[in-house]
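Annotated sample (chain length 223).
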Amino acid sequence: MIDPKFVHDTFSAIAGRYGTVNHLLSLGTDILWRARALQIIADWRPSKLLDAATGTGDLALDIQRELPEVHVLGLDFCEPMLAMARQRGLLHTLHADAMHMPLEDAAFDALTIAFGLRNLPDYAAALREFRRVLRPGGHLLVLDFSLPDGFARAPYRLYLHQVLPHLAAWLTGQRSAYDYLGQSIEQFPRGTAMLDLLGQAGFACPTHLPLCGGIASIYTAKA
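Output written by the structure step:
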């Protein structure tokens, strides 16, 4: 069970270095993953987009820059992360919990969440809340870590649980945040399990796009 207080306190502590450390630890592949997500979002041509659990605003800022016609709102329950997003240029932010958003029904054409659904305490309830704020026919995109299949799984798990926490501790002084990362990835639904969750939450046409052999995945669906 994800502890919201632990998540809040952990991300507050690393907010200033969060983006830089993620780029280093992923060898820059997180930038490529967001670029692929951006291509998908551009095809949807939304007018209003909510980036839930926006953190320091990486994906929201990409959308704001590359798709200036889209009104982008970045939402997060961690104010230090939002402060970093605003400092980096994100124009519209909302300090709120993605599990209980103070937003009207059917208010958005698209909702994105990058590396954030995994940190919420109830995936199914979160997906239902996302569907509530999407207009009928609106689009959902979930970008998050997963586990690769086949021969790559064992070395990836070694990196995830043994190498990465030591590197992160050296870079941030917060090893617990990256011990937690590995644990959260292990328990996060992936592949058909996530597609089933999307269907149970009332979404239609769910799709799964593995990235880099399954190290990350993009899931999309329609409200």
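Annotation: Residues 4-222 form a domain with the Rossmann fold fold (CATH 3.40.50.150).
Annotation: The first strand starts at residue 48 and ends at 52.
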